[in-house]
Amino acid sequence: MAMRRPRLPKLAAVRVRTAAAAALAAALCLGGGALWLRHAIYANSVAASIVTAQSRALAIASTYETPAARVNADLGTLAIRSSDFDDPESNPGRLADAYRKYKTYQFPYFGSDAVNYVVVDNHGTVLEAQDQLAYYLREGGLTLPASPPQSREFVFPRVSVLLRPASSGQPGQLDGRTVTLVAYNTYNPGASGLDAKDVKATVYVLVSPLDAEAVVAPVDHWLYRGLPAAVLFVATVAWWAAGRALRPVERMRAELARITAVDISGRVPQPRTGDEIARLAETMNATLDRLAEGAERQRRFVAAAAHELRSPLAGLRNTIEVALVHGDTADLEVLSRATKRLQSLTDDLLLLARLERAAPATATPVDLAAIAEELASERRYQVPPDERFTVLSEEPALVIGREEELARMLRNLLENASRYARDRVVVTVAQAEPCLVRVEVRDDGPGIPAPDRERVFERFARVDEARDRGHGGAGLGLAIARDIAVRHGGRLYVADVADGACLVAELPQSPRT
After folding, report:
1. From 56, 90, 122, 343, which residue has the greatest number of CB atoms within 10 Å?
2. Comparing C-alpha atoms, which of 107, 116, 102 is closest to residue 68?
């Protein structure tokens, strides 16, 4: 059985990712900056070395015209280096011979014992060599161009050559490296300088990479040692900062874990920092408030629904039990009224449940004026007819939504008005303002007291006195109507009128009108 890889806690994983991201950013920024700085320093050092090599090549070429220079050049041998001398205490006689030989072959140029240069004729024959270039010519078979490079006065061509290791196996400082040689030509008197035959000699001066590498050595030291330490430091600081920033999140998580469906009164601690975490805590507390409010509303709804269902069920049961005990026939009219009330209440409860979980209203134009006229006409033709309803509408009033839901909203408003109206119910459908349709249902009944104008929209809510169960309502009609209005982007409220009651529904007008 394969072993599962252990997982870090969520917050620890966030800290690890934060620290890793900070370390990566630090490595890219610091490393990239250090590499750019190293390249700039190295390039500047190489450029300085090339300028120095050019000045030395020009000085050597100018001194080549002296008689002493021509005598030494005619010897055609390679000068030795001071490092080739033996220990003077061990063999002082050989040292004197070597020094005399060195002085004989030394090119007459100031400081020539520290300059890496080669002088060749126009056929590539070495006339004079100094220091490391002399070593690689003698020991490594250094090959120079067979013909002098093309150049003009005060123009210094560059040549790249490979310094091979010595055949004897003795290591050199530049073994196996390709180096740059700065060249400068000297010409025969009266020559134009356009032909290789006019070249008297060519001076090659080595641009040693060792100088530039010595200059960038401190930068390399920082790169190899300081950069990992800097990246580790940044990662540690990021780990610590992420831990401090996430500490309130951990407290919120722990508090949320203690909140259950039974007890939803707890709230997460809200930091006073005013940052994103504080706003998260505020949002979580607001969400918990809404959940608590919804849970309390659901509890009251279930209790009220059970209470409302108990009354017709009790009536049905009493009627049936009386008939069974006395052997009489049950009162069918009572049974019919109780059954209708149960059916109506059950339909309302199912509609409320469907409205809560249904998708938002679709974009279908619906004419509220036509629906209102149709509902009023149904009441005129019912038995007995209800002639109290009047619909006032000058033109179609199109809104966006589901026709069956909007029809249910208007039916509930008309049903509510019919219970309490004495002689007249006026339904007005018109465009109240641009892009807004208003439906007013006004009756001449007892009206709704100002303190109860919001409570009538609560589920199973009834106003005392005239608006009670005696008029046949269960307290769900207006609640359903408001839910439908809100789902369609509108609102439903009780307007302030002098006589009777006036319920107003305002819905967005269809853009197709």
Report:
1. 56
2. 107
